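Q: Please design a sequence for this.
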């Protein structure tokens, strides 16, 4: 029976994280051994009854002092550079990554795939496909942790956080909440299943059929009356939302803000927090009137009507008013 030092590697980024960890441990072991060895050697050499020269020497080496100052600094900068590059890579998913919605709730993980398929405490993923997780919490702070993928991210109430990965090995892997969240925290566990792409497509068609977040969001856009103000009419009381996602929005009183998922969420729940320049603060708040699932669906719909050219989710150089006035430039 073998005891693995590290969890199984299930994603493309796992090896990179492991290499950094192994290098850090090796460096710490090397310097600890050198320092501990020097302590032991001096302890024996200068023990009380050993006849050695104990006269204090005023000699010093400038080269040695520079070496023990500069060398650790360069090593530290090297590790920081490599680790920072890995960190930023893990925080910037490719534009074409498949988006999966994750909602943490005591004590379960609720998952929805872009095709509408829903899961509880299970996540099915296709191998070799970049996957972006858009996550939030329905109650308290949780933390989404897949040891085999070497990824972990706090899931916060009232905010969106993201993770992305590329599953690289077919199999089943553990899913944990690594942030203490209450009495049954230890039971907030699940399973990640990586499948071949054909098997994943077949799995999507099994079980109960559910509408995709985009379709559901379009229905909610009309149900909550958003289309009456934002879809365009003879009397326009609010800006068009075509092309808003990923654009730069000018604010009343000066300044701008990037229209990402968090901005769209805040605009729905806290509409008076950031007023678009040129419009009156007349939109009502939907806080307490819309669930986290429906909020994610509504935002998915807004992102779909703001998809930019080349599939870059609307991240163009056009500002919000320019894109709203030229929807042909904002949509493929």
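A: Design:
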């Amino acid at each position: 029976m073998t005891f693995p030092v590290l969890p199984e590697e299930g994603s493309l980024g796992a090896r990179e994280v492991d290499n950094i960890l192994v290098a850090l441990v090796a460096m710490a072991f090397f310097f600890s051994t050198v320092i501990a060895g020097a302590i032991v050697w001096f302890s024996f050499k200068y023990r009380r009854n050993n006849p050695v020269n104990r006269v204090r020497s005023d000699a010093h080496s400038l080269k040695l002092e520079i070496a023990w100052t500069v060398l650790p600094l360069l090593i530290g900068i090297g590790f920081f550079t490599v680790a920072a590059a890995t960190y930023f890579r893990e925080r910037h998913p490719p534009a074409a990554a498949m988006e999966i919605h994750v909602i943490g709730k005591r004590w379960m993980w609720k998952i929805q795939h872009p095709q509408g398929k829903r899961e509880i405490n299970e996540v099915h993923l296709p191998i070799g496909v970049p996957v972006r997780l858009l996550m939030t919490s329905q109650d308290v702070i949780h933390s989404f942790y897949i040891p085999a993928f070497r990824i972990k991210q706090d899931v916060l109430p009232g905010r969106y956080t993201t993770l992305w990965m590329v599953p690289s090995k077919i199999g089943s892997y553990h899913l944990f909440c690594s942030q203490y969240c209450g009495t049954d925290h230890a039971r907030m566990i699940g399973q990640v299943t990586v499948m071949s792409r054909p098997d994943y497509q077949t799995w999507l068609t099994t079980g109960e059929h559910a509408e995709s977040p985009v379709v559901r969001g379009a229905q909610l856009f009309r149900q909550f009356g958003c289309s009456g103000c934002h879809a365009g009419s003879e009397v326009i009381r609010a800006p068009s939302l075509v092309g808003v996602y990923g654009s730069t929005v000018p604010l009343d009183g000066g300044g701008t803000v990037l229209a990402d998922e968090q901005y769209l969420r805040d605009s729905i729940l806290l509409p008076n927090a950031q007023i678009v320049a040129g419009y009156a603060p007349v939109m009502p708040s939907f806080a307490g009137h819309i669930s986290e699932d429906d909020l994610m669906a509504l935002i998915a719909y807004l992102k779909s009507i703001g998809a930019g050219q080349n599939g870059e989710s609307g991240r163009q150089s056009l500002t919000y008013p320019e894109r709203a006035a030229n929807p042909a430039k904002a949509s493929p």
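Q: Thanks. Anything notable?
A: Residues 143 and 179 are 5 Å apart (CA to CA). The first strand starts at residue 98 and ends at 105.
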